[in-house]
Amino acid sequence: MKNEKAMWGTEVPVREFAMSIGGQRVTSENTDFAINPATEERIARFPLASREQLDAAVAAAGEAFLTWRASSIAERRAALERLAGKIEEHYEAFLTLLTTEQGKPRAGAEWEIGGSIHWLREIAKQSLPEEIVRDDGVNRVVTRHTPIGVIGGITPWNFPLLLAVWKIAPALMAGNTMVLKPSPFTPLCTLWFGELAQEVLPPGVLNVISGGNDLGQWMTAHPGIGKIAFTGSTATGRRVMQSAASNLKRLTLELGGNDPAIVLPDVDPEAIAKDLFWASFQNSSQFCVATKRLYVHEDVYDRVVAALVDYARTVQVDNGLLVQAQLGPLQNKMQYEKVRDLLQDSQTQGHRVLLGGAPARSPGYFIPITLIDNPPDDARCVVEEAFGPVLPILKYRDLDEAIRRANDTEYGLAASVWSADLEKARDVAQRLEAGTVWINQIHVFGPDIAFGGHKQSGMGIENSLHGLAEYCNVQTVMERPLGA
Predict the structure, then answer these.
(1) What DSSP string runs through 114-171?
(2) What is the pLDDT of residues 233-282, one digit of tens each?
(3) How many CB atoms lie within 10 A of CB 247?
(4) How far apart are CA 92 and CA 113, in angstroms?
(5) What pLDDT is stored for residue 2 in this prediction?
(6) How many degrees, rounded to 5, is the angle at CA 146 between CA 168 and CA 21?
(7) What CA–CA distance (Å, rounded) separates 342 from 356?
(8) Rounded Cα gap, residues 450 and 467, in angstroms
(9) Are 476 and 461 in contact (CB under 8 A)?
(10) Confidence band for 1, pLDDT divided at 50, 70 and 90
(11) 40: left (phi over 0), alpha (psi -120 to 50) or beta
């Protein structure tokens, strides 16, 4: 008989977590505990960096930059490939640790850990060649990309290792060094990766330090850091931008989203229900590009709703370390309480809940899969980015009206269009105010695919050669022979 509570996972060969500064393992007198969101139990203690330790990390990165910037593309490529190998060597242990601290089930952990390996190897193949603008035998003009210096990376708790790699790989490949701060909610995988990285990188090239909001503020204002690469909320992104103005730091900001999906009336509701569900609920909707508003034409609205409810009832929400779990808990109590408050507001406003609603189970930060039937456009569950498994399904009659409603937000991160008519879907996609628009698919990313937000969803690009260029200054060199 099948054991419905079977566990997966392996032992993690880390007992005490430390920071990596200048190639050394560094602890701190001040510490905090990482919490397992499925059980609310303490996992392990981790250090909280002091301002002096931040200064030491920046100084180590600055010193390492002098030689790392002079390294060859081949040397950097080999280093990134070795970093990928370190994760691969400890693949199962990384899966277990990620699920324990973040909450996502094995399939989500495999997507993230496998993606981290893939990104390191693929970004290692990228380079930005010099552009010869003019060479007429007398005048030669060359535009080239040069590294910025010390990069400050600040990463979130939803994809802690993968989004760190999205910053580490291009920063190092471009010839920069880095000081990286993971979220205090999910520091463990990144701290461990930082220690493993010291086995393959010169001291100071990658420094990983941990701490809370104060550490992030010190980093964004630090005069020794030349660029901040930040992923997080729009509200925090605004503060990062203000603080970074102190020395005109370069910025890449990947911020919040309230991503719409528009379903046209020519779809087969039963055929797309599964894709629509995961478009919204992947990673328990803790995904900046999750579908957060689903606009469905009135002709197919009832069938789409019924198919979504039917499919959602089959999805198992549980501790991510259980074999049968398909969705896990929210990652932290702060986010859990925010989503609970949002659900309470919907209840107070009298919204019709098709499935789910207020959480009942304890312990663990579990929110049930919640579908809300056609709430008003000004409802909090529509206007706000829930960042939890709550999906408002909204009815529309006129396509122009749906596009207007989809664009009626301060955000512009991503969107999707679902239709059997590709030409019509393309027309809709081109009218949506978002940095990425998927047609009949969702959450397709690649090291070669540019990703960035419009409006208040951020600035700059991650991934592709555009993303690599974000970690460079542009320098133009003009020359001519003496006496010419």
Answers:
(1) HHHHHHHHHHTT-----EEEEESSS-EEEEEEEE-SEEEEE--SSSHHHHHHHHHHHH
(2) 999 999 999 999 999 999 999 999 999 999 999 999 999 999 999 999 99
(3) 11
(4) 9
(5) 43
(6) 40
(7) 13
(8) 7
(9) no
(10) very low
(11) left
Residues 6 or more apart whose CB falls under 8 angstroms from that of 154 comprise 180, 181, 216, 219, 220, 228, 229, 230, 231, 232, 240
Q: Coil, helix or strand for 434?
A: coil
Q: Locate tokens 């035998």: which residue?
A: 137
Per-residue model confidence (pLDDT) at position 11: 86
Which residues form the catalytic set? Answer: 254, 288
What does the mean pLDDT of the chain come to? 96
Q: Given this model, what pLDDT does residue 4 score? A: 59
Q: Which residue has the tokens 């911020």?
A: 255
Instruction: Return the structure tokens found at 135.
Output: 């060479």
Is the bond preceding 47 in cis, omega lying within 30 degrees of 0?
no
CB 92 within 8 A of CB 321: no
Instruction: Report yes or no: 394 and 296 within 8 Å, Cβ to Cβ.
Output: yes
